[in-house]
Amino acid sequence: MYQALYRVWRPQTFSDMVGQTAIVRTLRNQVRLGRTAHAYLFCGSRGTGKTSAAKIMARAVNCEHPNDGDPCGQCMSCQSILSGASMDVVEMDAASNSGVDQIRDLLEKVDYPPQFGRFKVYIIDEVHMLSAAAFNALLKTIEEPPAYMIFILATTEPQKVPATILSRCQRFDFGRFTMEELIGRMKLAAQGQPVTEEAYTLIAQSAEGGMRDALSLLDMCLGMGGEVTEESVRLVLGAADSQILFDLADHIAAGDAAAAMTTIDRLYSMGSDVTVFLRDFGRHMRYLTTARLCGAAALTGMSSERAERYAKQAEMFSAQKLMRVMEYILHAESDTRWASSPRSVLEMAVLRACDPPEGQDVTALLERIDTLEARLKAIESGAVEVRASGAPAQQPAAPGTPEKQPVAAGSVPAQPAPPASEAEVWKRTVAKVKAEQAQLSFIQRGRFQGVRDGAYTVAFQPQDEFYLTLLDNDRSRRIIGDALLACGAETGQVRVELLKDKAAEQRQIQSEQSMQTLFDTFGRDAVQVSDK
Asked: DSSP letter string over 48-104?
């Protein structure tokens, strides 16, 4: 009968365990020196070896011929425990036996000594699922057990275990496995079957540090037959192709919302799962952030070509924008668990990522500053050609060419171009300021109100009052005034103001009219106005 890979490759001795070096060394020395504790608590996420270590410990303390703290696996005690026939080792799943009655039944057998081995071992998995009454029933026995009793408690959520239990146990925290440890064990489990390095890497990333998850995913991929490649792994996982991740990141960097929506349509046509895609895209943005801040050398666990590709794309983003996009994706990944339309959550997150930052909070301002600095560097390096707005400079006449060409008889002389309108002059001025003074490019957010009292007037929305304060100084007025004169304006005077809230104005008028009606009806002295 076929057995799953994670069962075939479950370690049988401490020496077989991958990783967890400090824990393995401590447990082996305790067995070898005869200094085992009466209660242990094994903590850690799923698939990190808690239950395997508990079973190895149960065999090791009862082994007739231990080998440097490891069970021999050949004696009668080891064989009976491995087959599940031993009465000296009892395993219980607290998730399905969480009541006080089950714990009482278990403790009734504590008074009976071990039948064959030296110790009676109780392994309680997912111990945090026990009820408060069950923990209380267990407490006294764990505090003062018989000399032949050992309790091994395993849990993925140690914060739910009462402090009274924690203080009576030796606690061991099992960490997640590294990429190298996962890939090394998978290569042994594949037994020479064709699997590409990219496939191993993708499986290890998806396992998120859990050995059981990694071996289960590898088992599924090997079941497809043929060579296991990155594409076949993505097909099994329901994940999107890596090219879609790069394409979507390109569109977000360019602020192209339409292209980003087209990419999401392509994602859905491939049948990809939104939750899986958000997790993959969050990992993709994390790689870009690492490459942007630390360089391609910091991207471990992937080929140098892939790392360079991440580093090249990271140059399209500012550090602030990368962190902003990551925040949107993380929130979207959480929201999809409760949303009736996960696609809408994904699209909203992508649209917000494509949209330039608004508001006056520190993150938005820092991102705008990063964008302006990037534009300035591009101008200084010559990557962007700067041209002043307005009429092009007149080309010098060739030697010997008269300044004015004679007008042929009967021809109509060319009429001079009409002067530019005030709106056109302002439009040219904004373009000139954006090109030459990038730090004032936010002037384009203002609305041109015409020329009033000899000054070009621009107004900002109330939420953009911050920009008004940046323009309302002598230096900014001088820069904009010089640009106006260069673009053909008759004056270099500039006025900045806030747009009036017409709805608020209407409410004020209505309020004043109502007050006047009260005054006319009851008299001004009879009406008392209060702010409450």
From this structure: SSHHHHHHHHHHHHH-SS-BTTB--S-SHHHHHHHHT--SSEEEEETTT--SHHHHH
